[in-house]
Every structure is written in structure tokens, then in C-alpha cells.
Write a structure and sequence with these properties.
The complex is a heterodimer.
Chain A lengths: L2 E6 L4 E8 L2 E8 L4 H16 L6 E7 L5 H18 L3 E4 L1 H13 L3 E7 L5 E9 L2 E4 L4 E3 L13 E4 L2 H4 L1 H8 L3 E5 L6 H13 L23
Parallel strand pairs in A: 1-4, 4-5, 6-10, 10-11
Antiparallel strand pairs in A: 1-2, 2-3, 6-7, 7-8, 7-9
Chain B lengths: L1 E6 L4 E8 L3 E9 L1 H5 L6 H22 L9 E7 L3 H18 L3 E5 H7 L12 E6 L4 E8 L2 E7 L5 H11 L6 H9 L24 H14 L3 H30 L3 E5 L6 H13 L3 E3 L10 H15 L41
Parallel strand pairs in B: 1-4, 4-5, 6-9, 9-10
Antiparallel strand pairs in B: 1-2, 2-3, 6-7, 7-8
Helix pairs in contact in B: 2-3, 4-10, 5-6, 5-7, 5-8, 6-8, 7-8, 8-9
Classes of the chains: A alpha/beta, B alpha/beta.
Chain lengths: ~230, ~350
């Protein structure tokens, strides 16, 4: 059975997760901007723990954003380098979906409204519903002002998670009212949830893409004043 | 030893394969000129975005063109600095991870060392010692090179780099981007006698440069004289003459002060034909010789990084999991291959630094 390795460096957390048979081996650390010192050491640690080599893997997964621009690029750069070196396909996974999957895992949520602090008075916003072992998107991901976020449809009991609920607590509370119960305003993405979402896609027949076809998702494209 | 070289320090994504026995096997380049043209200069975040899109395809392409399966690589070299932090990180992350997966060593090379050793890629390479003039959009420096890793800084720009002055001048004259070729083109039709611009810092001893005053002088002249096409050409000519004269005067002094008879010119401004003519004249009078890398290796490229990597990997290659970058990195801190290299100060290499979303 070939292993699956997932990597996330898109926020101030750094994490990796490795599926080796029935076991999932994980590393997670709040590193601030220290991903470049940490991520490959984490990969080595889980491989060593499982007694696997890169050549024993069947695929890679990575969070492809949105998140910190530099963090997104480190994760994609590392993933592309590993994929080119070991000739592996890659399954890119949304950072927001990964956060939602984490909320489902720890809180048993059925519907999750993720708001991640995007700085500059905005949040990365995405809504997800649980389906099977994973989550599916409800509406499109966007970078928006917290006073203009929109919940898709009505009737769901949404759980709110992500750093946006900490940074813009009052604005979001006013905007969303009782439709969202905030449970996890500090949640960051964790590669174990990226791994879970990638496995759902593999089980559904996805094969992943070549290294050069992994592209960052920034959401914010207004980066110059020109 | 066969090495993959990766350059992402500024606005060119370059990848090459160099073999220490067989020479350069392939090199691929993606220039971001179009991305930055409308801004008249490099926008760091856009540069980083372009690097991460182009690097993996270029690696694949370079290996194919070199007919080198990835498992035949002995090491990977990447530009560790100096340069733009976010751009450097893309190359460092990809290179270190690829080396990790292949279980081969990687090494972070100094961008300016790669440039000044680039003429060694040519069929008739200069012998050591030589004096190197590095002139690009980011750097203007004169370096005495006694051997690989034995560098003495003779002089450098105290403000704008020469290439930067070309870019800014082109922008204010409405000539387009990149400024070097644009000013050179316009200057061809210019009257060399109409304006005479100052030659900064040539009226005193020393090998340092300063170009920001020249830029201001150009701006003032342009405001005073208007923007008729002939006037623009005349100003471009006066500006280019002043820069080239200044560079030539300092090169002449450097050759005289060091007693060295070989001059190496590297960096994008080294592609300027008028500069080449002028330096040939300087050299002729001293029985010296000027060496250039081929034009495509004057500007940033992966070949020079792969080449420097071949020299640095045996002594300094590592399988380290951590990677860092050095946006500021003193060239003189380098040591000959195999010796310990002085690491830049902690504040100078900032992993993860750069714009954050």
C-alpha cells in the first residue's frame, strides 16, 4: 500500500500528516514565519517514524491557499520539489476546506462557515457542508470585508471557525447574528485534515495533478497600487 | 558531477543543468519583463507569484533538454541571495525539497558570485586574477577576484544601481521598460554634443559609484527642455554617455590600482553595446583584455547558478532539512570552496520574510 503525505504551511501553523497503512502520523507546530526551518524536518520525522522512504509514497497533498502569500508559496514550492524529485502526483486542497474539515473532526459539525483573517480589513470566507468523510463547498470562496459575508441558504446550524472570528468578532457577530455559533476562533489548518480530504478525492477516483499544475490560490489579487 | 541550478532572486526564473565534465547541458529561462513593464520596475509580490508558477515547468523542461533523468542529478544549487526575499524563498523551497526527495545534497549560492564566475562558462575563460565589474538593475560593484571565493570589494554604488538608473531614466523619458535597452535605442539617435551630464564621483579618488544625482540631473533637464523626440534622444545620449564614462573611468582605475590585466563584465548593463566599445578602448590602452559572458548570461539565468553550484557543492552541499535565504549577503564574506563560509548576520536572512497575505 502506497503512502500519502500531506503538507500545510499556509498560515502561522506548520503541519504534515502521513498515511501509512491504517496509521496516520502527524506533526503540527505553531511556527509563525518559520516554515522553512520546520517543514522538511517534519516530513523526515513522519517518514522515519513509519519506516518509509519518499519512493514508498503514492501521492502528495498540500494546502494550496488562501492564506499568507509567502506561506502558500513555501508549501507549494516544497510540494512541487518533492513531487518532481519522487515523481509523484499532487492533490491540492483548499486551506479553507481543510479548516472546515478540522471543525467537523473536533466538533462534529455538519455545516461550517470558515472566516480566516486576511488582514487589510478582510477575511477569507468559505462555507462547507459535511458529506461522507469529507466536506463540500457551499458557495464560492472569497476574500471579503467581514461586514459583507454571506451564508449560503438558510436553515443550517452553522458552526463558525477560523481566525477571522477572533480578528473581527463584533462585525461578524453583527452580520451573522444567531445563524452562526462561533466555536473555534483560533483554528488554523492542520495537514491531517488536508490528508483526509485528499483521501476522499482519491477514493472517488481522483489521481492528482503533475507538480507543474499545482497553482496557488491567493483570492486576493489586488496586490499593486498601479 | 551533474547539477541542477535554480535562479529566482529577482524577475527572471532560470533553470539549467551543468555537468562539471561536459559543461552546460541545458538552460531555460522565463523573463517577467511583461509582468513588470506597466509598473516601470519589479513588483516583488508579482515576481514571487510568477516564480512559483514557472519554476516547476522549467525544471521539467531543463531536465528533458539535458536528457538527464532526475535520478542522474548529483546535486541541486539555488540562489540563496542577495535578492527579493519572497522570490528567493520559492527557489530555495523547491530546490531543497527536490534534493530531499532525491536524497542528494543541495547548496545555496551567492547570486553575485554566480554572475562574476559566469564568464568561466565560455570557451575561452579568463584566468585568475581578474577584476569584475558587476552592473545590473540591483548592483553596481567592482570586485577583485583572486580565485573562486576570494573576493575583495573595490567599490560599489552608494545609492542607485546603474541598471536602476537606466530604468528610472527610461521611465521619466517615457521610453518603456526595461530601461537599459530602451535608453540605448533612443541614445543612438541622440546628439552627443547637445548636453553634457556630470560624471558622478570621478573628480575624486576611489572606486565607489553614485547614480541618483545623475538621475535628478536627467529629470531636471527633461523638465526644462521638453519632450520633443530629438530632445529625448539627446537626453538619453547624454545620460548613457555619463554612465558609461563613469563606469569606464572606474574600471580604468581598478585595473591600474590592482595591476590586473583582465576585466570581466557581468550583469544586465554589460549587454550595452556602447559600454562594450568604451571598455574595449580602456583595455586596449592597457594591453588588458575584457571578458564577457554571452549576452544571455549577462542577465540573471540558471546556468551561472548551476555552474557555481558545481564549484560549491563538493565542499558545502548538504542534506539539511532547514533552508534559509539571505536577501542581503556580503560577497566578501565568502570563502574558497571547501572552507567555512561566513553566514550572514541573523537579521539578514529572514526565512519566511516577505509580504504576508
Amino acid at each position: 500500500m502506497s503512502g500519502l503525505l500531506a503538507i500545510d504551511t499556509t498560515t502561522t501553523a506548520c503541519s504534515v500528516a502521513l498515511r501509512a497503512g491504517k496509521a496516520v502520523l502527524c506533526r503540527y507546530e505553531a511556527v509563525g514565519q518559520g516554515h522553512s526551518r520546520t517543514v522538511l524536518a517534519m516530513v523526515r520525522a513522519v517518514l522515519d517514524e513509519a519506516g518509509l522512504e519518499m519512493t514508498d509514497l503514492g501521492a502528495l497533498a498540500c494546502c494550496s491557499g488562501p492564506g499568507s502569500f509567502t506561506g502558500v508559496r513555501i508549501g507549494i514550492g516544497v510540494t512541487q520539489g518533492l513531487a518532481l524529485g519522487a515523481d509523484l502526483p499532487v492533490i491540492p486542497v483548499s486551506t479553507l476546506a481543510t479548516v472546515a474539515q478540522g471543525a467537523c473532526r473536533t466538533h462534529g459539525a455538519a455545516a461550517v462557515a470558515v472566516a480566516m483573517d486576511a488582514r487589510m480589513g478582510e477575511v477569507y470566507w468559505g462555507c462547507y457542508r459535511r458529506r461522507g468523510a469529507g466536506v463540500v463547498t457551499a458557495g464560492e470562496e472569497a476574500v471579503v470585508s467581514p461586514d459583507s459575508v454571506v451564508l449560503p441558504g438558510t436553515g443550517d446550524a452553522w458552526l463558525g471557525c477560523g481566525t477571522g472570528y477572533g480578528a473581527y468578532a463584533e462585525v461578524l457577530a453583527e452580520r451573522l447574528g444567531e445563524a452562526v455559533t462561533v466555536v473555534d476562533p483560533e483554528r488554523l489548518p492542520d495537514a491531517r485534515d488536508c490528508l483526509a480530504l485528499a483521501e476522499v478525492r482519491l477514493a472517488a477516483g481522483a489521481r492528482g495533478v503533475a507538480a507543474e499544475d499545482v497553482v496557488p490560490t491567493y483570492r486576493r489579487n489586488r496586490v499593486t497600487q498601479g | 558531477m551533474r547539477v541542477l541550478g535554480i535562479e529566482t532572486s529577482c524577475d527572471e526564473t532560470g533553470v539549467a543543468v551543468h555537468d562539471s565534465a561536459r559543461g552546460l547541458l541545458a538552460h531555460c529561462l522565463h523573463s517577467q519583463i511583461e509582468t513588470h513593464a506597466r509598473y516601470g520596475g519589479v513588483v516583488p509580490e508579482l515576481a514571487s507569484r510568477d516564480h512559483v508558477r514557472k519554476l516547476a515547468p522549467l525544471i521539467r523542461e531543463a531536465l528533458e533538454r539535458a536528457q538527464t533523468p532526475r535520478t542522474a542529478l548529483d546535486g541541486i544549487a539555488y540562489t540563496r541571495g542577495p535578492g527579493l526575499a519572497g522570490a528567493l524563498l520559492v527557489g530555495a523551497a523547491t530546490a531543497r525539497a527536490m534534493a530531499f526527495a532525491l536524497d542528494i545534497p543541495a547548496v545555496g549560492v551567492h547570486h553575485m558570485e554566480a554572475h562574476l564566475l559566469a564568464p568561466l562558462l565560455e570557451a575561452d575563460p579568463p584566468a585568475f586574477p581578474f577584476v569584475a565589474l558587476l552592473v545590473s538593475g540591483g548592483h553596481t560593484m567592482l570586485v577583485q577576484v583572486a580565485g573562486v571565493g576570494r573576493y575583495r570589494l573595490l567599490g560599489e554604488s552608494l545609492d542607485d544601481a546603474a541598471g536602476e538608473a537606466f530604468d528610472k531614466t527610461a521611465k521619466l523619458l517615457g521610453l518603456g521598460y526595461p530601461g537599459g535597452p530602451a535608453v540605448e535605442r533612443a541614445a543612438r539617435d541622440g546628439d552627443p554634443g547637445r548636453f553634457r551630464f556630470p560624471r558622478p564621483m570621478t573628480d575624486r579618488p576611489g572606486l565607489d559609484f553614485s547614480f541618483s544625482g545623475l538621475k535628478t540631473h536627467t529629470l531636471n533637464t527633461a523638465r526644462r527642455e521638453g519632450d520633443a523626440p530629438q530632445t529625448v534622444a539627446d537626453i538619453a545620449r547624454a545620460f548613457q554617455d555619463a554612465v558609461i564614462d563613469t563606469l569606464a573611468i572606474k574600471c580604468r582605475r581598478a585595473l591600474d590600482e590592482t595591476g590586473v590585466r583582465r576585466l570581466v563584465v557581468a550583469g544586465g548593463v554589460g549587454a550595452n553595446a556602447a559600454l562594450r566599445e568604451r571598455l574595449a578602448e580602456v583595455a586596449r590602452r592597457r594591453d588588458a583584455r575584457v571578458h564577457y559572458p554571452r549576452i544571455e548570461f549577462c542577465t540573471d539565468n540558471g546556468a551561472m547558478v548551476a555552474h557555481a553550484g558545481c564549484l560549491r557543492l563538493p565542499g558545502e552541499g548538504s542534506r539539511d532539512d532547514a533552508f534559509d535565504i539571505a536577501p542581503r549577503w556580503d560577497l566578501e564574506s565568502l570563502a574558497p570552496p571547501g572552507d567555512a563560509v561566513t553566514a550572514p548576520a541573523a537579521g539578514a536572512s529572514a526565512p519566511g520574510a516577505g509580504s504576508r497575505g
